[in-house]
Amino acid sequence: MTDTSNEMIHVENLVKSFTLHNQGGVTLTVLENVSFSVERGECIILAGPSGSGKSTLLRSLYANYLPQSGKVEVRHDDELLDLVTAPPHVVLDIRARTLGYVSQFLRVIPRVSTLDLVMEPLLARGMDERGAREKAATLLTRLRIPESLWSLPPATFSGGEQQRVNIAMTLILDYPVLLLDEPTASLDAENRQTVVDLINEAREGGAAIVGIFHDSQVREAVGTRTYTLEEARKAA
Ligand SMILES: Nc1ncnc2c1ncn2[C@@H]1O[C@H](COP(=O)(O)OP(=O)(O)OP(=O)(O)O)[C@@H](O)[C@H]1O
């Protein structure tokens, strides 16, 4: 039976700790019993003091970190799949088709041009070259990346330009679930507003979004709900 629920992310009793091997094997529990759900059309702001585990939680939602216990379920092909227990090929398929992640810093293949980087996800989904080029050009223009830079790899770009290329590489696809780690941190007011608009358009289009935003104006402009992480750090 197909589940028609709007729940896109279901996190249950998540526990994540780090063992510090160079500190005598001390174990630091950063996330404890974290539980929440995100529905289509919601943008959840992760809040909490510095060090409370916001980035750790976001990385766990992308399966970059393996939690000690708990569930991180994501709706993929209309079925909630648990990223904690999913085999690697399933995690990669969920990332390719369902789960978009904008990290704080751009990580790209060297020597590939900016336009090719932004077109690539569309080509991988079978879009024709011309359509992909047009769509990538439209998004890069909207994000104010000058056309003179499109043929260059972004390695030498400014911090704000790299951040905008990073955003374009993810928002070029309509991911059903988006994870955003401070996507506006290096941006000026005008570009920040453009990114706010893009996030709101994705949400209005039905995406379920979880994000960390240190700028309170951005939080107010994109957030529909806040999930606050308590300081759960315990050393054992
Ligand atoms: N890879 C790691 N190895 C060991 N400890 C880690 C690791 N990643 C995070 N931590 C620990 O987890 C704590 C929470 O870090 P995290 O980056 O998730 O916090 P945050 O809430 O995102 O902080 P900020 O708002 O300052 O970015 C850190 O203080 C750190 O001690």
Automatic annotation (TrEMBL):
Gene3D superfamilies reported in the protein's UniProt record: P-loop containing nucleotide triphosphate hydrolases
Keyword Metal-binding on entry: no
Entry keywords, A to Z: ATP-binding, Lyase, Nucleotide-binding
Molecular function via GO: ATP binding; ATP hydrolysis activity; lyase activity
PROSITE patterns: ABC_TRANSPORTER_1 (PS00211), ABC_TRANSPORTER_2 (PS50893)
Family annotation (InterPro entries): AAA+_ATPase, ABC_transporter-like_ATP-bd, ABC_transporter-like_CS, CP_lyase_PhnL, P-loop_NTPase
A Pfam family that the UniProt record links to this protein: ABC_tran
Domain ABC transporter intervals: 9-235
The keyword Lyase is assigned to this record: yes
Source species, domain of life: Bacteria
Family: Belongs to the ABC transporter superfamily.
Protein name (Swiss-Prot/TrEMBL): Phosphonate C-P lyase system protein PhnL
